[in-house]
């Protein structure tokens, strides 16, 4: 069972302000969630569920692309076939 003190502690860890007027409501909600996990723990998991998996990706198709000159035509600066950008650090 989650207590109001637990909820205050969780609120501090999550860095959210929980007002004292909200404390009872949050405590009730936390306890409802914990009770639901208790229900899930009682579910028998004897049978493995198998599903047919399909590849939803398409095959790669080679198509014509831009030439190196076309791809770097509008670049402000180029070096060895690459676009040269200012250093970040």
List the SSEs and their pairings:
Layout lengths: L3 H10 L9 H19 L26 H4 L6 E2 L2 E2 L6
Helix pairs in contact: 1-2
| Unreliable stretches covering 5 or more consecutive residues | none
Number of strands: 2
Q: Main beta sheet, described?
A: 2 strands, antiparallel
Report strand order across the widest sheet.
Answer: 1-2
Q: Proportion of β residues?
A: under 5%
Structure class = mainly alpha
SSE order: HHHEE
Taking the alpha carbons of the first and last residues, their distance comes to 51 Å
Oligomer: single chain
What does it look like?
The protein is mainly alpha-helical. It has a domain at 1-59. 37% of the residues lie in helices and 4% in strands. It is built from three helices and two strands. The protein has helices at residues 4-13, 23-41, 68-71, and strands at 78-79, 82-83. Strands 1-2 form a two-stranded antiparallel sheet. The longest helix is centred in the middle third of the chain and has 19 residues, at 23-41. The radius of gyration is 29 Å and the shape is elongated. The mean pLDDT is 89.
